[in-house]
Write a structure and sequence with these properties.
Elements lengths: L6 E14 L7 E14 L4 E5 L6 H8 L7 E6 L2 E2 L5 H7 L3 E4 L13 H11 L8 H11 L16 H13 L5 E5 L7 H18 L2 E6 L2 H7 L2 E6 L2 E7 H6 L4 H8 L42 H5 L5 E4 L2 E3 L12
Parallel strand pairs: 3-8, 3-9, 6-7, 7-8
Antiparallel strand pairs: 1-2, 1-4, 4-5, 9-10, 10-12, 11-12
Helix pairs in contact: 3-4, 3-5, 4-5
């Protein structure tokens, strides 16, 4: 693995057994939540991971942290194969990688005060104990824009944005190198989203932390990310620098996602211009013989149904898995 990569995900699968089809059937059915994911994340950057709900984004983020054990493949963290670690080694590695969950209402223990929620990881990892915990917690709360008076309060006493700041403080407590932000602002009001985004950017500037920013909001991802990976049915179908990918998408799915984002203009009839993605999402239980987007793609040809495209370079640093990516060289 190249030295400039902090995270290297190679051919990662996460398949879930959901039981057998019915009487007389011997084979168990599997949901292919993540199916052949390959991804590289550099130190200090924000990698955006986007796609429709159900495409496997959150499962991928959890598998990278080994909160979910992969079915196949490997995740290299700073040269260390996470799949080869036992419980003790994985626990030590937790200090370097954290997660901020989507729902700030469900991810905090309602029976614990903020000082205990944030301080718990300091104690567990031996970073502080006794009287040294409270000053560290106070400093963390100040870092995320909460005063020290928050320490003695319970989660239900905070707004959604404040709770998410507590979640960020908890993740920062162990001074991690890598944080997975799993739809961490999607449950918040737009004005609060902007505050959290600015906070995350400031923290990255000050600490050099690396983010995997998981979201279905294309506009937010563009603002937040250095590079973007577009995921469809468990695999990356396009990846590249944020500006390049948004200005000239080279996969039909990326193009469709961008066209489905509301824009501040209207038609002559006074209705917003908005395009959806045609067709139905294929089942994640299917084994895809050809391109996994072929049943919804306007460019589909016989080769798409028979041969899966590989993630190839279309311009320097920009990759797409499409047999006809050259037809999409202009802006969306």
């Amino acid at each position: 693995m190249a030295e400039q990569e902090l995270i290297f995900v190679q051919d990662l699968d996460v398949h879930f057994d959901i039981g057998r089809e019915g009487f007389g059937k011997s084979s168990a059915r599997k949901v292919r939540a993540v199916d052949g994911l390959t991804l590289k994340i550099r130190p200090g950057e924000t990698m955006g991971l986007v796609g429709e709900s159900g495409c496997g984004k959150s499962t991928a983020g959890r598998a990278i942290l080994r909160l979910v054990d992969p079915t196949r493949g490997r995740v290299m963290f700073d040269g260390q194969d996470l799949s080869a670690l036992g419980p003790r080694g994985l626990r030590q590695m937790r200090k370097r990688m954290q997660i901020v969950h989507q729902d700030p209402y469900a991810s905090l223990n309602p029976r614990m005060k903020v000082k205990d929620i944030v301080g718990e990881s300091l104690i567990v990892h031996g970073l502080a104990k006794g009287r040294a915990v409270a000053p560290r917690v106070a400093a963390l709360l100040e870092t995320v824009g909460l005063g020290t008076e928050a320490m003695e309060r319970y989660p239900h006493e905070f707004s959604g944005g404040q709770r998410q700041r507590v979640g960020i403080a908890r993740a920062l407590a162990v001074e991690p190198d890598f944080i997975v932000l799993d739809e961490s602002i999607s449950a918040l009001d737009v004005s609060i989203q902007a505050q959290i985004i600015n906070l995350l950017k400031d923290l990255q500037r000050d600490t050099g932390v690396t983010y995997l920013f998981i979201s279905h909001d294309m506009a937010v991802v563009r603002h937040m990310s250095d590079r973007v990976a577009v995921m469809y049915l468990g695999a990356v179908v396009e990846m590249g620098p944020s500006e390049s990918l948004y200005a000239s998408p080279r996969h039909p799915y990326t193009r469709a996602l961008l066209k489905s984002v509301p824009v501040p203009q209207v038609t002559a009839a006074g209705k917003p211009t908005l395009e959806g993605i045609k067709g139905e999402l294929a089942s994640p239980m299917e084994v895809h013989k050809g391109c996994r987007f072929c049943n919804r793609c306007p460019l589909v040809q016989d080769i798409c149904r028979q041969s899966p495209p590989t993630l190839d370079v279309v311009t320097p640093g920009h990759f797409a898995a499409c047999h006809f990516s050259d037809r999409l060289a202009t802006a969306a």
